Amino acid sequence: MFKKLLIANRGEIACRVIKTAKKMGITTVAIYSDADKNALHVEMADEAIHIGPPPANQSYIVIDKVMEAVKASGAEAVHPGYGFLSENSKFATALQEAGVAFVGPPVGAIESMGDKITSKKIAQEANVSTVPGYMGLIEDADDAVKISNQVGYPVMIKASAGGGGKGMRIAWNDAEAREGFQSSKNEAANSFGDDRIFIEKFITQPRHIEIQVLCDTHGNGIYLGERECSIQRRQQKVVEEAPSPFLDEATRKAMGEQAVALAQAVGYASAGTVEFIVDGAKNFYFLEMNTRLQVEHPVTELITGVDLVEQMIRVANGEPLSITQDDVTLTGWAIENRLYAEDPYRGFLPSIGRLTRYRPPVEQAAGPMLENDKWMGDAKPAEVAVRNDTGVYEGGEISMYYDPMIAKLCTWAPTREAAIKAMRVALDTFEVEGIGHNLPFLSAVMDHPIFIAGEMTTAFIEEQYPDGFNGVDLPEGDLRRIAAASAAMNRVAEIRRARISGTLDNHERHVGEAWNVALQGLSFDVVIAADQGGSTVTFEDGTALRVSGKWTPGDPLANMSVDGAPLVMKVGKVSGGFRIRARGADIKVHVRTPRQAELARKMPEKIAPDTSKLLLCPMPGLIVKIDVEEGDEVQEGQALCTVEAMKMENILRAEKKGTVSKINAAAGDSLAVDDVIMEFE
Questions:
Q1: Which of the two residues, 404 and 587, has the higher pLDDT score?
Q2: How far is Cα 443 from Cα 436, in angstroms, rounded to an integer?
Q3: Is 210 a known active-site residue?
Q4: Which of 22, 521, 590, 655 has the fewest CB neighbours in a 10 Å radius?
């Protein structure tokens, strides 16, 4: 076995690889840029080597710099993680020439599967089901229209070297095919330096389902079930689960066997993923193969008990697989939510800054890991498991230079329903402060009836949140539970305030039983009866809710129980009550005496300031350029400026016609959220 392993990556995946390597007794080497000198993966590794400035194109993806680190460390093997150099055949070749093992597939497999046209041809030759289409060279727009008619509308026009949605258009008729061909060709040339285009049938009601394969250098290959990855935003996966709620055993077996056949057709050896598009009738078609470890691999590990990183290292060391297809059993259900530093209330724009508070839920294993189809040891598995793969820590910085992922939160349970319930509690327990993040959105998805029913397609977010995410309005039943818990918590706080030292003699303060709780536009009159075990909160209509739990004034998290059901809330202080965040909602809860509530109803509402004539910076970022000057008349949709954050350039456009009266920023300026960029008349 290798004695020293270098991880050519950063963040959560570097930390993930380090954990397994240490478990195997392998010394680990991290690499880091200037921005990552205090990063968690640097702290976890046995050694760390600096490789350059913050931008990835000056550090993490510069092959020569990584190779220098490999040589300096004396590492015998390199794990590339995902992204960066993980699917770069030149990097794999450089390691091979240096006599260093690449913990990934052979160079030929990377090259074959890295080109969409080539990979589809290989898939067809291996009898893998592929989407009907045309793989040859498309001469011009007229040729594209002719082929589109042969394939049958709607069609997908795609760049052969594409990725991340670039060079991709959907056409429903001849005019759109003509226009889409030229747009895709231009984008492909600009983004990838390769303008080859192919056309295939566009699948309606599509689901994105992928098969995890594992192959060795001795001709063995197995599949470890599937992952459902249909909930995506701009081709970026947000929620994954294993197995898929849509597949039956026969379809799973057919997809798995075809995935292994494709892998073996290119001499694949390592962990890899074959992605399929699946229609409503369970017809499946090959999409592409990712010749690396997937971001969402933890859900497969949770239902199979197989450590994929360990298997990759062992395969790279020349060992045969220790498990066969008959040994693979899918046990229970696992769900992964990707926590991103993206503000859902601002169109999911990147958010950077310091993590002033970062407290993930407590991780817990589901009992002994699986081995050869059986639970190891005598202990039965726990009811649920919680796993959090992360690369950050409290007090650390979320940088503008890299991917916005903060963590991957996973839950496992014997059933899908139980795994979803566990995820809801885990999300509510996850404390993140200091930056914008998508925890509220993830909570909303876990409660969405389409997700609960398992009927989502890849259009889920686009269809269910067409105007973006604006928070959650909880049903009255949930609001009553929060109101009851808040009333009980307020009573605890009132008792503490009543016991303050220095009060006048014979002026003891009495904490009353009657209160009014106002939240999300509703108002409840309640009466509290407290005892040693908790409180019974009775509403005006006679409904009584039993509240118990542990919360002390000042605690940012309240773990409560309402009528025997858990209720986890993030708690902040506002005048006359609490700021409560739970189940994706962000609510101001006011708990007042009946007289205070009566007076509060007579108070005028505070009107928000008018910002309609201001262009505010939607995220912390760098002004790349200003496209207008003072005095310019602008039209609706016209580009005003470009702000860069987390490797992405965001063009800010005029919402309506107007005249620029003042510009407060210039190219090169670093701005915070809501800084005024320009003003209009």
A1: 587
A2: 15
A3: no
A4: 521
